[in-house]
Amino acid sequence: MLVTQFIIRRLVFSIFLLFGVSVIVFALVNAVGNPIEILLAERPGISQQAIDQMTAYYGLDQPATTRYLMWAGNLLQGDFGTSIIYNQPVWQMMTSWGLETLKIQVPGILIALALATAMAVTAAMRQYSRVDFGVMASAMLGQSLPGFFVGILLILIFSYWLGIFPSYGAYSMRSPLWGSHLLDALWHMVLPVAMLTFFNTAALTLLMRSNLVDILRHDFVTAARASGLPERRIIYGHALRNALIPVLTYLSLLFGLMLGTAPVTETVFTWPGVGYLYINAIQQLDYPVILGVTMAIAVMLVVVTLLTDIAYVLIDPRIRLD
Amino acid sequence: MLSTPVSNKPAPQSEPLLDVRGLSVSFGRGTSAVPVVMGVDLRVGRQETLCLVGESGSGKSVTSLALMALAPGGAEITGGQVLFEGQDLTAMGPAALGKVRGRRMAMVFQNPAHSLNPILTVGKQLGEIYAWHTRANRRETRERVADLLRQVGITDAHGRLDQFPHELSGGMKQRVCIARALLCDPALILADEPTTNLDVTIQAQILDLLDEIKETFRTSILLVTHDMGVVARMADRISVMYAGRICESGEARAVFRDPQHPYTRALLDSTPRIDMRYEPGARDLPAIGGRPPNPAQRPDGCQFHPRCAEAGEDCRALLPRMTASGPGHAVSCLRRGSRVEENAA
Amino acid sequence: MASIDHISAAGTARTDKPRGMWAQGWARFRRNRTGMLGLGLVSFVVLVAILSPLIAPYAANDQSAMMNFGSRSGPSLAHPFGTDRMGYDVLTRIVYGAPTALAVGLGTMLVASVLGLLIGGISGYVGGWADEVMMRLTEFFLVLPVFVVILAVVRLFGVIVVGTPLEDIPYLNLTTIVLLLGLFGWPPIARIARAEFMRLKSMEFVEAARCIGATRSDILLRHILPNAMPSLVVVIALGIGSAILSEAMVSFLGFGDPEAISWGQLLYFNYAQLKVSPWASIAPSTAIFITVLGFNLLADGLSDAFNPRVK
């Protein structure tokens, strides 16, 4: 099979996937009933007429299939609807809040990748030594440490006790630190990024170390050694390259995990990201936002999975496309 | 003054290319260390082929790696010297070793499919080695690699440079591996079972190729194998290894004509050969009964005695040492009058 | 002498064989330090859960500290882990959180195992077209933003049931969480089950069973399943840990079960007061950490014990 053919097949599958997700999410949200009624039920001052008016305004009086088609049609045109609570376009809200999420997540993955590589190489080169055992044990421990626990400890130590970093938010409320908005933003990022890095590093180190150990046992590594290439070159030029291939798949899983747990991360640090937005939307039954964020996350996951699949094929010449 | 397979004595005065003395390798450390290679002596003269023969598990592959001062995971060279071109490789640092490995001494592995990096093109992985050793530029490197591929019998050498290993056949891969070994004109090629994983017809081609490069590149070859057919075809000299020790070594002709050690005899008897007539009456090839000892639980005395028909009471207690049994021929067997190893515990 | 040792060693090697794979696995597991540490931690949590009414210094819903000492008092002799913002004794709540956590972990894995075995088993045993469909389904669930969906469903379901008889089910919220975690937690089990069933169905002893006329259910339940168990047990142990963690996160975000005493809830109620009463947040976090670590280490040890070649 050709690479393009493979990509087309994956694309078709991805489209089915997104269609499935949209139906499920839409059905779930709509099973709740009329969110306007539920939201306004607790407020006695509002007349039935006002409720009916709002229901009609949001198109909630139409049958479910019509509403799904309308919603999906709008979605395809990039229209995610309008938030019931904030009365803002959902797309606009997602991009501004989403940017804050990526601001901590992307550095969290990249720094972790660099750290994990260094630690895994150190451990794998001295397999079964004390260094190896130490790296493995701390990674194992780190992997079992819940992310929020790390966040709590970071806040307690660096924010409350040492008073170095702010414990919440992405920006200072009043004047920015040192009068610079950039420094202020960076300073706020430190703790959340540290927590995400910690969490990712543990899992990545374990994975890369076991890949490396496995690959260092291969004949081609011995052959490279027997050819007089220096150890550094063998590790970085040969073994690491091969060991990174499975890591690639894992990175897409990790990305999904991070998007999925963004609500927790952002609650710990009161970070104005898309996860925080989502939690609030769920609590307040702001259904256009719930639908929009879920779909946006699903699209991102599908795209990342698709990209890794393609990258996999391009990097590893052995992959048979069947 | 080339030594030919016919000559009996390969210039005894000149210093051998490779002189291994008392090489020992163990797995693990301390009290749980398991010795797998014990006091092995080997010599390879210039432009000579030495065949190191033994069953799987006899320690011959570990030995061949140890000759490059390499040890498979968990193994360690615990004693002895590997004198190559007058230098002891076991005493060298990584930098000095890097100037010997791949440059003066190169290796061909058993499984060509595994010994090439699957995600690098042939040109890249061979070129990297040549460029590293010679500091040649890209164009020179590509030329050199293509040139060698041509010399080992690969057609369309330039086209192959950009192919990945999995796009080549098994025999072709082994040719690439041999080309890799030849990149820097080494004095010695270690070939560890280079034909075991190949089809019979390809095996013959690879053996021919090895013979050919021995002449054209004036290299010596240390060929590790379990196949007496290969030995008969390639060897100038033979060392037979059993359970981590050499039990017989000598000129190929002498060993084949008059094998001394019962194990060598059994090996020869259990190999179908064209150059020897089978004893009348014996219809089948005899097999060697029993199995080589577990390295963690070695018997006392001669390692071969549990499987040896000639073993006596002394064989169970005393370890024989290599003793000359004729011109250019040595054996370690008490039944052949070998002396007893004194410091055998 | 040595030769006799050699022979007797070979003899014991022979008697080793008939020992079951569980006995062999256990023998290897016992020598695995991380695995044993995991088993120790898990046993500790299980013990605390079973004995919770006996160990807990106060009654589960005793908020009396609110009057006597005031809430949010630091660790003291009367309250080793302090009291929280609602006047509960933190240690008591932690102890009573253990059975909840284990119920969540086991319940989730029960649902996930049934689904995973069914889907993975059919996929691997039948193969072909069924396999294709099942594996696409698995892939679909793997790409789904599970945690996010669970949050939405728990909340929405809570609204849906209002006014229906379902509302009267005790621990409804927690049950929903467990069912959802199970519903989304089966893909790893299905993957392993598929691989194992595929491998085992063509093994000689299964062929032999088929030849002597064993029924299909007999082959599946008595021949294949028991042999697939070691690999499955590893994934299940990992799954228990991650289910406990997921419930904690759901509860931490405020979507937990108000009726249940869970570590995540404790964290939810006290996190806002982290600066004032850190112990009330650290204690439940530590409890979650210890439990998850225990199951992870246990899984690691089990995988080493059953697949000694892997490492």
TrEMBL record, chain A:
CDD domains, per database record: TM_PBP2
Protein name: Peptide/nickel transport system permease protein
Lineage summary: Bacteria, Pseudomonadati, Pseudomonadota, Alphaproteobacteria, Rhodobacterales
GO biological process entries: transmembrane transport
UniProtKB keywords: Cell membrane, Membrane, Transmembrane, Transmembrane helix, Transport
Localization terms from the record: Cell membrane
One Gene Ontology cellular component: plasma membrane
Pfam short name (any one): BPD_transp_1
Location of the ABC transmembrane type-1 domain: 98-312
Transmembrane among keywords: yes
Membrane-related topology note: Multi-pass membrane protein
Transmembrane segments: 12-33, 104-124, 145-165, 185-207, 243-269, 289-315
InterPro entries referenced in this protein's UniProt entry, alphabetically: MetI-like (IPR000515), MetI-like_sf (IPR035906)
Primary location group: membrane
Domain of life: Bacteria
Family as reported in the entry's similarity comment: Belongs to the binding-protein-dependent transport system permease family.
Classification via Gene3D superfamilies: MetI-like
Automatic annotation (TrEMBL), chain B:
Keyword Zinc belongs to the record: no
Keyword set includes Transport: yes
Keyword vocabulary terms for this entry: ATP-binding, Cell membrane, Membrane, Nucleotide-binding, Transport
Record region (Disordered): 284-303
Name by which UniProt lists this protein: Oligopeptide transport system ATP-binding protein
Pfam families: ABC_tran, oligo_HPY
Family to which this protein belongs: Belongs to the ABC transporter superfamily.
Domain of life: Bacteria
InterPro entries per record: AAA+_ATPase, ABC_Ni/Peptide_Import, ABC_transporter-like_ATP-bd, ABC_transporter-like_CS, Oligopep_ABC_C, P-loop_NTPase
Source species of the chain: Salipiger marinus
TrEMBL record, chain C:
Protein's GO biological process: transmembrane transport
InterPro entries: BP-dependent_transpt_permease, MetI-like, MetI-like_sf, OppC_N
Keywords: Cell membrane, Membrane, Transmembrane, Transmembrane helix, Transport
Localization terms from the record: Cell membrane
Occurrences of domain ABC transmembrane type-1 (ranges): 98-299
Membrane-related topology note: Multi-pass membrane protein
Transmembrane segments: 37-60, 94-119, 140-163, 169-193, 232-256, 276-299
Highest taxon of source: Bacteria
GO terms under cellular component: plasma membrane
Pfam families to which the protein is assigned, alphabetical: BPD_transp_1, OppC_N
CDD domains (UniProt xref): TM_PBP2 (cd06261)
Key word Transit peptide present: no
Record family assignment: Belongs to the binding-protein-dependent transport system permease family.
Descriptive protein name: Peptide/nickel transport system permease protein
Lineage: Bacteria, Pseudomonadati, Pseudomonadota, Alphaproteobacteria, Rhodobacterales
